Structures are given as structure tokens and as C-alpha cells.
């Protein structure tokens, strides 16, 4: 198992310490404006944006690229609704971009690619 040790001293902008590492917001209902449970937009300090539905990562926007979880990107009507909001497009448009290879279909919930390109398989049963 690979582990990473990040100390506060190694973090960018040490004077801010733990401020702004990640920002998590619930999606809001278009009808009531109230937060939707279990539907999250996560913005990391480095600008990467993540759409998480319940405990599953559905989509990642990083470095002008879109990554969709190949198994869960279109899991349910609710997932699709908030994925569409996250990407600002319809499911038809998403399917077209997948077909054109504009979106990468990857396993966002089990396999991680490290900075050196090496894949790391996480044991989700632990």
C-alpha cells in the first residue's frame, strides 16, 4: 500500500495552514434552492473540481480534462441530473463527447493514478 506524508510545512502557503485545502458544497435544488443531500461539488485548492454522489466519485474536472467514472457516470436519474449541472450540458451531449473521446472514461472509485503515472489499486474492503 502506498502512503503519502504531507506535513503542514510542506503545504503551499504555509501561513494559511489548513485554510482552503478543499471546499465542499451540496448541489442545490433548482425548484426550492435548498441543498440536496448526498450530491457534492468539491473544489480542491489546486483548482480540481469533483462531483461526488453519495460515496461515489462521478466526475473530475482537472487541467482542462473531464474524467468520468466508467461504471457510475450514468448510474441513476439523480446522478445524471447533477452530473449535467456539474458539466453544464445534457446527457445526450455527454454521450456524444464520450463517443468522440473528449471525455476520459476511468475508474474513479477504485484505481488512482499517481503523479508519476503509476497506478495504485486501493483495497476498498478495508
- List the helices and strands in order: EEEEEHHEEE
Distance linking N and C termini: 12 Å
SS class: alpha+beta
Please indicate the count of domains: 1
Radius of gyration: 16 Å
Residues in β-strands, percent? 25-35%
Q: Report the biggest beta sheet as strand number plus sense, adding barrel if it closes.
A: 6 strands, mixed
Shape: globular
The total strand number stands at 8
Number of helices: 2
Largest sheet, spatial ordering of strands: 1-2-3-4-5-6
Description:
This protein is α+β, with helices and mostly antiparallel strands and 126 residues long. It has one domain. Helix content is 16%, strand content 35%. The strands form 2 sheets. The protein has a 6-stranded mixed β-sheet with strand order 1-2-3-4-5-6. A two-stranded antiparallel sheet has the order 7-8. Strand 1 (22-28) and strand 2 (35-44) form a beta hairpin. The termini are close together.
Compose a concise summary of this entry.
The chain has two helices and eight strands; from the N terminus they run βββββααβββ. It has 126 residues and is α+β, with helices and mostly antiparallel strands. It has one domain (8-121).
Amino acid at each position: 500500500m502506498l502512503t503519502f506524508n504531507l506535513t503542514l510545512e510542506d503545504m503551499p502557503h504555509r501561513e494559511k495552514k489548513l485554510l482552503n485545502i478543499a471546499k465542499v458544497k451540496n448541489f442545490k435544488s433548482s425548484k426550492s434552492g435548498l441543498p440536496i443531500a448526498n450530491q457534492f461539488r468539491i473544489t480542491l485548492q489546486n483548482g480540481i473540481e469533483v462531483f461526488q454522489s453519495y460515496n461515489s466519485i462521478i466526475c473530475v474536472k482537472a487541467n482542462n480534462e473531464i474524467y468520468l467514472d466508467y461504471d457510475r457516470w450514468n448510474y441513476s436519474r439523480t446522478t445524471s441530473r447533477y452530473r449535467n449541472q456539474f458539466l453544464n450540458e445534457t446527457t445526450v451531449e455527454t454521450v456524444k463527447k464520450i463517443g468522440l473521446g473528449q471525455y476520459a472514461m476511468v475508474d474513479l472509485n477504485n484505481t488512482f493514478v499517481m503523479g508519476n503515472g503509476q497506478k495504485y489499486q486501493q483495497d476498498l474492503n478495508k
